Amino acid sequence: MALPKLVVGITQGDSNGIGYEVIIKALADERILDSFTPVIYGSSKLMGFYRKTLHNIGPMDINVISSAADARQRKVNLVNCLPDNIYAEPGQSTPESAKNAIVALDTAVKDLKEGQIDVLVTAPINKRAMNAEGFSFTGHTEFLQKEFGVEDVTMIMVSHQIKIGVVTGHIPLRDVPGSISKDAILGKLRIMKASLERDFGVMDPKIAVLGLNPHCGDGGLLGHEEQNIILPAVQEAQAEGIQAFGPYSPDGFFGLGNYSRFDATLAMYHDQGLAPFKALAFADGVNYTAGLPVVRTSPDHGTAYDMAGRDEADPRSMMSAIYTAIDIFRKRLQYDSLMEGRLIEKNR
Description:
The chain is α/β, with parallel strands linked by helices. The chain has 11 helices and 12 strands. A hairpin with a 4-residue loop joins strand 6 and strand 7 (163-166).
């Protein structure tokens, strides 16, 4: 049976960053339209502007629409949701580019809720600029958590080599120790286990848990979080049937390649997980929000103002984000069908 052709919503992100460039490059080969139907949320005017800055991209037939409901297969569809007087200022952080990013995101999420698109891929945003324009969230992850009314989510960085989740995300480093608790770690481990099974098809996954302090606190000499918080969380997770192990000292864990022995790794804070992840998989890494009832992915890079409008951006992370979203959506269908079959068999 042929797999359904999914409708993939893609937000433009910050209109002065590399969002349009990586989107256009990712969709440049018409053959990929056999796999899914793209719907971009942004501006046809901006799309045309950035298309002209790219030198090795052939003609692209853009189907400009007012709603995702009008999307056509084998076309690059664009929901024109921004003002006609919009203009690009590549490399500049402006109030207008932040407002545009908010509108594109709001429009896409509305369509996602209504089932007009199947999955959402978000291009990079400037969080600080958006906050100045009334976006009261520290990133896509926190915004989508609120929009879909879930108690907790986990940012998982995904590549073929490694998957890394974080306990604390977009918060200042000084606030990390006070935000680490047994319940917080347990909550993330539960989400990661459920996501690895349903979203990635990894049954009974093995999850490594990192320490917080250098050398995992060195027996209490450099801190007590490992002994008092992290280890008890790992032990309680094991009692629940989660294959969690650790805590491990991050330097040796990554330096010796021990991450390859596990299906995923849980880091305590943002840079502890994302720095090694990007060193290993920056070119094709993906940011995935686990714990949502919908599928959302993003490239693992930022707006990259320094290369905006210069035809220098690498589209591989955007391409990976698109295909990862499609894969997760289909894995969920397979998992849910399997679980439903087992329930029917059990009740016979």
